[in-house]
Design a protein that fits this description.
Elements (H helix, E strand, L loop, with lengths): L2 E4 L5 E2 L2 E3 L9 H4 L11 E4 L5 H4 L4 E7 L10 E6 L4 E5 L16 E8 L13 E9 L8 E6 L3 E6 L9 E6 L5 E4 L1 E2 L2 E2 L3 E6 L5 E5 L2 H4 L11 E5 L6 E5 L5 E6 L5 E6 L16 E9 L5 E11 L7 E4 L5 E5 L2 E5 L5 E6 L6 E4 L4 E5 L3 E6 L7
Length: 380
């Protein structure tokens, strides 16, 4: 497919409002009935003074790309930043095919960034993005319906949800410029349901979530397995179920010390759910433990946080252990103890996010892609 060049990207300061949660009454407009927002720009709500260590005093934002004219949700999942090439890889939501008899499609966006010189008169940690080359790509035939993704071995590791064929989908490594290589495609002969998100540990092991989302969207056959969280080591080939107590596992993140695993349950967003107000829209935390001579286990499951609005579709950690969740109202930020620090309000419903260069937060919100430059001391 042809590429699109967008230049002249503007950088604007982010307004910050300190909110007293003890005395604040939320209005219907602020809470949002369906995750929609009337915002036309980004703003930050500070709930706790320690948020300043994240945002600093001069944080800025840019609207990198917008698909408002087509109204297609090109910026949905993936959000894998490759530092060596200064590129971001994003997957779309389901896009309807022009032929009614065919399944919807998911496209991959390859976004090549161009920046100002590294030195910045404003003292910013990272040079801002001034232009983008945007190329939309069809996934290879053996990697249908890609969802989550991370940078991996000079390329990208994709979660392929699969298609109507029972044994399609799994984890696939796509080296830059090469076709995808299967990494894990089944659990002892039983097909994965609809792999959603993956994270790599420092030891090279992969933790990933698998839910029935693909079956719910009618792109996958009847599930063969429960909704599981898996641990897989590509070197040894060992594959284990490490959690089976979530109804719709989605996002996944490791703490900086890799002693805590965060997993989101998005059961409240399940299509046709008549009891969404009583369903999980929750980030759970698990302790990671190892017995002598064994692979890791997850213990001590606990509620870490419940989303302010919508569901926590994706989750990441910063270098000090703060947790960022992509939700209907924007990016919700918590410290490692689960205290709500603040909210980065973003137009639309946020569905994925990742860190780029130092202090740079990249956020997907359906028809738009945003960049925030966080200037807090934790990134210095």
């Amino acid at each position: 497919m042809t590429s699109i060049l967008k230049d002249g990207i503007k950088v604007q300061p982010v307004p910050v409002k300190v909110v007293d949660l003890l005395h604040k009454v939320q209005t219907p407009t602020e809470s949002g009935r369906s995750g929609s927002s009337s915002l036309e720009t980004i703003a930050i709500k500070e709930f706790h003074s320690s948020l300043r260590s994240v945002i600093g005093d001069t944080s800025t934002f840019s609207l990198l790309l917008s698909a408002d004219t087509s109204r297609n949700p090109f910026f949905h999942k993936g959000c894998a930043y490759v530092v060596d090439t200064d590129e971001l890889y994003v997957t779309s939501d389901l896009l309807q095919s022009t032929i009614s008899s065919r399944l919807p499609v998911i496209l991959i966006s390859k976004l090549s960034f161009r920046r100002t010189t590294e030195s910045s008169s404003s003292g910013s940690l990272t040079a801002p993005i001034t232009s983008i080359e945007w190329m939309k790509l069809r996934p290879p035939a053996n990697m249908p319906m890609p969802s989550g993704a991370i940078p991996y071995k000079r390329g990208v590791l994709y979660c392929s949800q699969g298609a109507h064929e029972a044994y399609s989908g799994g984890l696939f490594h796509m080296p830059l410029g090469s076709r995808p290589i299967p990494v894990a495609t089944n659990y002892f002969g039983r097909a994965f349901n609809s792999v959603q998100s993956v994270i790599e540990g420092k030891d090279g092991a992969l933790w990933f979530t698998d839910s029935c989302a693909g079956f719910e969207q009618e792109i996958r056959p009847l599930p063969q397995l429960p909704s599981h969280v898996y641990w897989f080591h590509p070197t040894t080939g060992e594959l284990r179920v490490v959690a089976d107590d979530l109804k719709r596992p989605a996002g996944i993140a490791l703490s900086p010390r890799e002693d805590t695993l965060y997993i989101t349950d998005t059961e409240a967003a399940r299509p046709g759910n008549k009891h969404a107000s009583r369903s999980a829209a929750t980030i759970y935390a698990y302790d990671i433990t190892r017995r002598p001579g064994s692979s890791p286990f997850l213990i001590n499951r606990r509620v870490f946080a419940f989303a302010f609005s919508g569901v926590p579709a994706a989750v990441i950690c910063d270098p000090t252990g703060n947790v960022y969740a992509a939700c209907a109202d924007g990016v919700e930020i918590f410290n490692s103890g689960g205290t709500a620090l603040g909210l980065i309000q973003i137009p639309g419903t946020c569905s994925s996010l990742c860190f780029g260069r130092k202090g740079e937060l990249l956020v997907c919100a359906g028809q738009s892609l945003w960049r925030l430059q966080l200037e807090g001391t934790i990134f210095h």
